[in-house]
Amino acid sequence: MRLRYLVATGGAALLAAGCAVGPDYKTPATPLPVSWKLEEPWRQSAPNDSADKGPWWKRFGDAQLDALQDQALGGSPTLAIANARLAQARATLAANSASRFPQLGLGTRASRLKISANRPLTNYATANSSTVQNDFMLSLNASYELDLAGRVQRSVEGATASAEQSAADLENTRLVLTADVANNYFNLRSTDIELDVLSRSIALQRRALELVTARHDLGAVSGLDVAQQQALLDTTLTQVDVLKKQRAQYEHALATLTGTPAPSFALPADLREIRPPPVPLGVPSEMLQRRPDVASAERAMAAANAQIGVATAAFYPSFIISPTVGVDSRMIETLFNGPSLLWSVGVSATQVLFDGGRVRANVDFAKAGYDATVGNYRRTVLTAMQEVEDGITGLASLDRATTQAQAAVAAARRVLDMATSRYEGGASTYLDVITAQQSLLTVERQAAQLQGQRLLTSVFLVKALGGDWCGAGAPDSVDPRTGCPAPLRQAAGTR
User: Fold this and answer.
1) Rounded to an integer, what distance in angstroms lies between the CA atom of residue 220 and that of residue 425?
2) Confidence check: pLDDT of 289 > 50
3) pLDDT at 326 exceeding the cut of 70
4) Is pLDDT of 468 > 50?
5) What is the pLDDT of residue 361?
6) Is the torsion defined by CA of 467, 473, 479, 484 positive or negative?
7) Mean pLDDT taken over the chain
């Protein structure tokens, strides 16, 4: 009769299980604009947001950059740490999921013991005697927590969301790593171009110094002209040393990002022009599907929401069923006989009656943690919108500035030619030549810097959009306007 009561009690508890306390998770609404504020030469497009956010850097068409990215993805300690965090999160999920199932254990005992004849009497009419006997036992134990308040269910939900958050964090780490590699690489290449500009300027200034020195030796000009040209040359040579220092720092940063000791890493100078790829822009809401940091912030909300349910479940009783079945005998040959059978079934229940407000405080703590993740999610979305708008306006402005800088370089070269001719003809002082040389050097360096800024801003925009926009890999047949495979030509926009 007692066994029936225990079974009935356990069955009723099982029927009640599955009612999870705490709020069900709902993604908070985030106000999103209908479209970006586009200006020429941008236009709206529809990138393939369901595609894998693959090697976006291949859109720049630089083999050296591709090799550095592959090296970074294979040897970066930061990426290895993120992979380990993901493995930990998945292991935690597996551990929490195991709580859904009964825990089984097998126990065995084999002993030989002697009972004391002088032990306390259990019956005053019967004298104790000393015996020596064997004891053999084999038992199967089970333990199962009835998830009456949904504590286990919420724990699994939270662990699942945390594992998904770690996966998003890994993608974000990969995106940030590859963007850092590209930024340092383009900074290095921009510095190479600036050094080339300085090298050509130094050659020009040395020829000018030879000219003015020759004219000074002939008595045609004063020593002031020679001193001015020498000062300009020395200043330019100083700038070379400063740029070489900056280039070395970019090179060392690339070494660290790729997991290579800085003394063992070197990149030769390369003056090839790299053009930023056209980046298609979709509607703002698509970015929520693309950016891994937004996905990570959203999954953090889901995990925090589940913790509210876990904390709330402490208000309700905890039920654990613990059945045991086994055999026990003093002789090994009768261990599996019918009379050797033993069993037990038990249900234990625990209910907190007074804890000084500890459970309530834990629930309040979990709710405050959830509110914090909501605020972080909204901040992440707003920051994402800001970064995309910064990239859009930045590239549009830099495109116009680059065109103007190229025109300024051509004009500065004409001014230098005219100033040199006028000086040689005695129509002007050498100060006009010095000024023209300085102006040419300034606008040529500015043009080189603008080209580097265009590349950096392109990387910034790609990162802001969440990575590659038309899938992984380097397709053999691509649209030259977008760098996307031919099937996506109609879907991708241009700028």
Assistant:
1) 11
2) yes
3) yes
4) yes
5) 95
6) negative
7) 82
Find the mean pLDDT for residues 92-118.
90
Tokens representing 15 are: 């029927």
* pLDDT tier, 283 (very low <50, low <70, confident <90, very high otherwise): very low
Q: With 80 as the cut, is the pLDDT of residue 38 above it?
A: no
Q: Are 369 and 307 in contact (CB under 8 A)?
A: yes
Q: For tokens 């529809």, name the residue.
A: 46
Q: With CA atoms as reference, report the closest residue to 402 among 244, 276, 236, 272.
A: 276
Asked if residue 190 lies in contact with residue 452, where contact means CB atoms within 8 angstroms, the answer is: yes
Torsion on CA atoms 86, 92, 96, 97, rounded to nearest 10: 50
Cα 28 to Cα 390: distance, rounded to the nearest angstrom:
25
Phi, psi of 336 (to 5 degrees): -100, 15
SS3 per residue for the chain: CHHHHHHHHHHHHHHHCCCCCCCCCCCCCCCCCCCCCCCCCCCCCCCCCCCCCCCHHHHHCCHHHHHHHHHHHHHCHHHHHHHHHHHHHHHHHHHHHHHHCCEEEEEEEEEEEEECCCCCCCCCCCCCCCEEEEEEEEEEEEEEEECCCCHHHHHHHHHHHHHHHHHHHHHHHHHHHHHHHHHHHHHHHHHHHHHHHHHHHHHHHHHHHHHHHHHHHCCCCCHHHHHHHHHHHHHHHHHHHHHHHHHHHHHHHHHHHCCCCHHHCCCCCCCCCCCCCCCCCCCHHHHHHHCHHHHHHHHHHHHHHHHHHHHHHHHCCEEEECCEEEEEECCHHHCCCHHHEEEECCEEEECCCCCCCHHHHHHHHHHHHHHHHHHHHHHHHHHHHHHHHHHHHHHHHHHHHHHHHHHHHHHHHHHHHHHHHHHHCCCCCHHHHHHHHHHHHHHHHHHHHHHHHHHHHHHHHHHHHCCCCCCCCCCCCECCCCCCEHHHCCCCCCC
Q: Torsions phi, psi of 261, nearest 5?
A: -60, 135
Give the pTM: 0.77
For the packed helices 358-424 and 430-465, what is the interaxial angle rounded to 10 degrees?
A: 150
Mean pLDDT, range 321-338, rounded to an integer: 90
Whether residue 494 has pLDDT greater than 50? no
CB hemisphere CA count around 402 (13 angstroms): 16
Q: Which of 65, 34, 461 is nearest to 278 (CA)?
A: 461
Q: What is the pLDDT of residues 385-415, one digit of tens each?
A: 888 888 888 888 888 898 899 999 999 999 9
User: Tell me: the pLDDT tens digits for 241-267?
Assistant: 999 999 999 999 999 999 999 998 999
Give the pair of three-digit tokens for residue 111: 């002993």
Could you check whether the bond before residue 31 is cis, i.e. omega within 30 degrees of 0?
no
